[in-house]
Amino acid sequence: MSANKPTYLFIDDLRSTDRETRLSAAWLLGQRGKEAVPALIETLNDTDKGIQYASIYSLATINTLEAKEALIKVLPILDIDLNTEDKEWKKTTVELLQIIGSPEAHAILKKHGIE
Question: Which of 14, 40, 75, 111 has the most Cβ atoms closer than 10 angstroms to its Cβ?
């Protein structure tokens, strides 16, 4: 996937049936700024955790008010995900909460004994 494509094509890629295309688009849209925020917000309820987490990371990277508000809404999902037995997903969840960095995200980490 070429990083030189126009943003709207990456947004279209989020709707692809190919997982790798969707995953790459979610990651790369984090470098595109506020234009990508609405499309990334749409993927926050994706059933594929990889897509969901890539979108969370990208929104945290973009860091606009709209992105921050969307991230606050997914904190309950990340809170639940910290209960997983899968050590890699748990590590990734911790990293996402740290990247989000809001007081609410830190409270979730503290609740789970992670400082």
Answer: 40
The C-alpha angle 108, 34, 24, rounded to 5 degrees, equals: 75
Residues 6+ apart with CB under 8 A from 39: 11, 14, 29
Cα separation, 68 vs 47, in Å, equals: 21
Q: Answer yes or no: are the C-beta atoms of 44 and 56 closer than 8 Å.
A: yes
In the chain the domains, ranked by start, together with CATH numbers, are 7-111 (1.25.10.10)
Closest by CA position to 20, among listed 51, 44, 60: 51
**Pair of tokens at residue 9:** 């094509």
| Nearest partner of 34 among 5, 83, 69, 79, judged by Cα | 69
Where helices occur in 1-115 by DSSP H, the ranges are: 7-13, 19-29, 37-42, 49-62, 65-81, 87-100, 103-111
| pLDDT one-digit tens code per residue, 40-63 | 999 999 999 999 999 999 999 998
pTM: 0.90
